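wait is this the right file?? whatever heres the structure
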């Protein structure tokens, strides 16, 4: 149902609070004189099979989803401060639990990125990809504003302007043409404003957190039960900060930096990928020369891996299906396996292929393809979310680095990881030249009045370094309960080989039983 908006009203405080209580939208953000948001909170969601949705984008995003998912739309304002400025319609998807007699409600899933399509990611996992959660909850997800089928940010074909700065220099020993690539990219970013329309100034984690509360009410839930992966953990924290009294059972897996800075967080991520790479190599070398093609000496194997990636700058490797493996593609594929709990054991086989310049074995190739599918990536490693990722990241940060500052930091990235640093260095410039200003409002996530929240990160998580779970816990305050495990992979709840993590998160989601703070799964 598309709501009819009431005009802005100036109400006495008591009347405003009463109205919010009746519509389940009360929070300290709503006060006297704010616009009436009741029409949004009173929406009823009309679900239908995704395959019959009139929106072609929704049909495309869900075409490989197993089972019988349902899709719908939810109307939200561009800005909650002034709904008269216009509206957008968020794309929704759900799998209904089969056990209707023991249903606990709706569990809202956010897969992070930022900029990733929730519909694609839920469809890639299916209803059984979340341990026991799908047996007791309706699994609900959405494309956040500016993403996928929810008024997507556009920056040209396949986000070409956004991606242009990424790559490695012809000379891997210095920044080379990095500053020039960033400057060229900045020139093309004005396309984002022209192509994206009115949504661009209104993306970002703060507005999406407000959307979450509208979704909660439209689902008929008094409390938001929530599972956030990666950047979805920052969204959950932003929600807990703004709507602490509406938090139900909230899990954050693969915990993001609560107050990101492009240089600090990207350097930390480069170091974490290198740590995860060494962990993958060591898994192999511990088995000894007879069982590990990389040998039994971890230091020597790492030296060989680093040298092999450097050779790809000058000598790309013939690859499967007649393709060529250059350095950037090799980095992207390796990163994908390191993020995947299931694909991680195959990372040494991919590395051995690069070191010895051989096509990958069938198992490594299949693991790589499975990791890409699980993340919604295409065969070239892209996930199509570059423009939305930039839009949300830049909306969430007031900081901007110049091309010169990024080039001057190149050596820091190479030191953090000679394999991944040269490729990740340009991510420091994600917001350089971005056509919209940002602010740091989403960085405040203090939620001392929220109920207990469960935070988990693996010790060898390459995308969200384990130290960030502690940063987030400090930022949230006494509501945070943290948990780690000694494995690798990024956002691992639901992975078949993460039994300890699955059991403890299941206990919380299904029974409300929390592990002890600082639990460590081994």
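ok assuming it is, sequence goes like this
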């Amino acid at each position: 149902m598309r709501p009819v908006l009431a005009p802005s009203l100036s109400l006495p405080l008591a009347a405003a609070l009463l109205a919010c209580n009746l519509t389940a939208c009360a929070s300290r953000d709503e006060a006297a004189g704010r616009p009436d948001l009741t029409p949004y909170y009173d929406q009823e969601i009309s679900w239908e099979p995704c395959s019959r949705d009139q929106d072609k984008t929704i049909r495309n995003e869900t075409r490989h989803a197993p089972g019988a998912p349902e899709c719908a739309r939810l109307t939200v304002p561009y800005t909650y401060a002034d709904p008269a400025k216009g509206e957008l319609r968020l794309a929704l998807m759900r799998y209904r639990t089969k056990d209707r007699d023991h249903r606990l409600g709706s569990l809202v899933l956010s897969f992070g990125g930022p900029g990733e399509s929730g519909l694609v990611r839920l469809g890639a996992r299916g209803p059984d990809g979340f341990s026991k959660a799908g047996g007791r909850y309706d699994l609900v997800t959405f494309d956040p504003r500016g993403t996928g089928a929810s008024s997507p940010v556009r920056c040209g074909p396949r986000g070409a302007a956004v991606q242009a700065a990424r790559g490695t220099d012809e000379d891997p020993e210095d920044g080379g043409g990095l500053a020039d690539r960033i400057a060229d990219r900045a020139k093309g970013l004005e396309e984002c404003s022209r192509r994206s329309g009115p949504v661009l100034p209104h993306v970002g984690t703060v507005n999406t957190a407000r959307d979450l509360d509208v979704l909660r009410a439209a689902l008929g839930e008094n409390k938001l039960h929530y599972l956030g992966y990666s950047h979805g953990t920052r969204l959950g924290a932003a929600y807990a900060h703004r709507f602490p009294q509406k938090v139900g059972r909230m899990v954050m897996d693969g915990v993001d930096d609560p107050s990101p800075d492009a240089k600090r967080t990207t350097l930390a991520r480069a170091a974490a990928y290198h740590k995860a790479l060494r962990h993958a190599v060591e898994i192999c070398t511990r088995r000894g020369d007879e069982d590990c093609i990389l040998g039994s000496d971890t230091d020597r194997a790492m030296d060989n891996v680093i040298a092999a990636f450097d050779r790809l700058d000058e000598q790309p490797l013939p690859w499967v299906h007649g393709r060529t493996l250059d350095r950037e593609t090799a980095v992207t594929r390796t990163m994908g396996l390191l993020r995947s709990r299931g694909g991680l054991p195959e990372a040494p086989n991919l590395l051995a292929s690069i070191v010895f310049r051989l096509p990958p074995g069938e198992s490594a190739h299949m693991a790589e393809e499975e990791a890409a599918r699980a993340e919604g990536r295409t065969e070239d490693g892209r996930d199509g979310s570059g423009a939305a990722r930039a839009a949300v990241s830049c909306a969430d940060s007031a900081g901007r680095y110049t091309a010169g500052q990024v080039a001057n930091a190149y050596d820091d990235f190479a030191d953090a990881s000679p394999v991944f640093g040269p490729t990740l260095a340009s991510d420091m410039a994600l917001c350089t030249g971005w056509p919209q200003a940002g602010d740091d409002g989403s960085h405040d996530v203090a939620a001392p009045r929220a109920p207990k929240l469960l935070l988990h990160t693996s010790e060898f998580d390459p995308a969200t370094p384990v130290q960030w779970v502690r940063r987030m816990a400090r930022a949230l305050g006494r509501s945070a309960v943290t948990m780690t495990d000694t494995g690798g992979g990024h956002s691992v709840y639901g992975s078949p080989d993460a039994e300890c993590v699955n059991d403890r998160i299941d206990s919380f989601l299904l029974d409300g039983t929390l592990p002890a703070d600082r639990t460590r799964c081994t």
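The mean pLDDT is 88. so i think its the right one actually
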